[in-house]
Amino acid sequence: MSQDEQREYFELQETEYPETVPSVLKHKSSKQVVLESETSGLSNTISAMQSISISMPSAGNKIITVVDENAQGFSINGVGGDSCPPLETLGNNAEPKAVMFLSRPMSKGSSIGEADNDSQRFKDKNFDSFKTWSGKLERQITSLSGRSRKFDSEEESTQNPENEPLPVDRYFDALEGPELETLRSTEEIMLPDDKTWPFLLRFPISSFGICLGVGSQSVMWKALASTTSTRFLHISLTANLILWWIAVALVAVVSSIYLLKVILYFEAVRREYYHPIRVNFFFAPWISLLFLSLGLPPSVSSNLPEPLWYILMTPILCLELKIYGQWMSGGQRRLSKVANPSNHLAIVGNFVGALLGASMGLKEGPIFFFAVGLAHYLVLFVTLYQRLPTNETLPKELHPVFFLFVAAPSVASMAWAKIRGSFDYGSRIAYFIALFLYFSLAVRVNFFRGFKFSLAWWAYTFPMTGAAIATMQYSSVVTNVLTQTLAVILSLVATLTVTSLLVTTMLHAFVLRDLFPNDVAIAISDRKPKHHRKWFHIRHGGSEWSKDIETFLKFANTSNNDIEAALNISNDEAKRV
């Protein structure tokens, strides 16, 4: 071809195929041509003196011709296109040898694509915001090695959580349910909900409820074998020994796992601590250790050192100073706002500690904790019974959490009996309160159906066990067929409840494999949904009727008395403002 014919040929191809060719050929030198593909991002060096086959993405019927004044002519055709005739060498008398290049589509499952997917999988940093170091150590090592990382500021802004703890109102707005562990439909979480989170992030503090249930069972079977009113059952201490060692193993395993969570995912632990329900479960590890001390088999040891009691009660005292202070402060976490049956876990530790201390021969310490527990139990009991309109966590219907009402008075009766040396009138008053609450919940057992299983249910079993142990002590003082039968029945109910929970837990753990789902309660965002808007605003100095309307709408599903009480409260607050 002459030079004019070649130009006409290119113009004809551009007219028939106006699409842009996805590959750009740049003339580098007389010996090299660099092919840069826009779609695949690859750069290949092609020697014009050799025959080379190149695989390219399919781009339709396209013909690309590259001419080198010192080399051979070649063409690259799209699949299905017509081949270009040999080109004549420009400015050279030698006959050119045409080299044909046919583009072929690249497979989707190429090694490059798979490598990209693998790298994305290994570089997943969605959970770094809950890690203790949040990637700071990795960045320090990278900076020391002399390598720079891009977009550090962007990663820190999107992955690192807020230093300030979440306000309690965010938990009420984002979560629902008696245990505040179900995400509302209008909320979003910080972690991906389409994949399974690391196990430690899914391991909640409520797992210590298992230790409470099994540990209290070891105490109950020790009482069955040693109490005078139940000796007719001829129960051996072997059951107490087996249950005690199982409880020790459970406490060791659960404590080790949660300690790893504290070390590796401290942000998740901090969010659990500020959760209005889960904060009460931070008493569970220490109460479990108290149960292990009370249920100690005589074959293992007969006496416990007194310093052990002070060691176990010190963390309980520290937690009480923090939480009880929040109840009285009148702030976001005042008792009238966060009161719920799980708060009994923060109370019952005083009575269990008093019982253990009195059993060890101590005097002043057990009386101190008994007094503190009694004062706060009375306040909590009245607050829960009132069902104040400001209370946002108290379930409107019966739930297994209500069995915690039985825990404090039943253990308090045994603690006071041990302090006084006899099951006197004070112990009997506390015991009768516990017995009445137990029966008032037992006759409504049908209302407890239809609730989703949770590990927190284990914490609701030890109140039944405590009521059974208190009944044994009462039957030792008032011995007759009725009290002995009642002690056996309550012990049997407590044992069957723990056994059924054990079977259910094993079923969810090994068959359904959903014992530890993604814990959305710790992954809520600190920002409210954008589409969530209030219908009206209440400003300082504004009309009082707008606040009454908001209160009325908030408690519209409650009784008329609650609405009137809520309106009176809002009017009083407006007057104070």
Describe this structure in words.
The chain is mainly alpha-helical. The chain has a domain at 199-522: Voltage-dependent anion channel (Glycosyltransferase, Alpha/alpha barrel). The protein contains 19 helices and 8 strands. The protein has helices at 3-16, 111-122, 136-144, 152-159, 168-174, 208-226, 238-264, 266-273, 284-294, 306-329, 335-338, 345-359, 364-386, 407-420, 425-442, 462-477, 481-511, 544-554, 560-576, and strands at 23-27, 32-37, 43-47, 63-66, 74-77, 99-102, 175-176, 182-183. Strand 2 and strand 3 (43-47) form a beta hairpin. Helix 6 runs antiparallel to helix 7 (238-264) and helix 7 runs antiparallel to helix 9. The longest helix is centred in the C-terminal third of the chain and has 31 residues, at 481-511. It is elongated and about 120 Å long. The relative contact order is 0.08. Mean pLDDT is 76; it is low at 19-99, 101-123, 147-162 and 532-546.
